[in-house]
Amino acid sequence: MKLLKLPQVLGQTAKARSTHYNDIKAGLMTPPVSLGVNSVAWPEHEITAINAARIAGKSDDEIRQLVTRLVSDRQAIDGRVAA
Description:
Structural class: alpha+beta
Mean pLDDT: 93
Number of strands: 3
Shape: globular
Helix content: 55-70%
Number of helices: 4
Largest sheet: 3 strands, antiparallel
């Protein structure tokens, strides 16, 4: 599983930094994964899935549902790794 730093994410989404963080607050983008005290990244598959939903013309509500599912999937992965 590949992790992308903010500049890579912004390059793939074609959005400004402020818009990206506004999307997180609005539930239209997954929150970052902490890599350490001052470092975060996003799973590449999540960015790809959100971009695909945008390209497919999904509504903001549908994208919010996708984001909720992607975040839930993180917890499921965590449970499998810890087991």
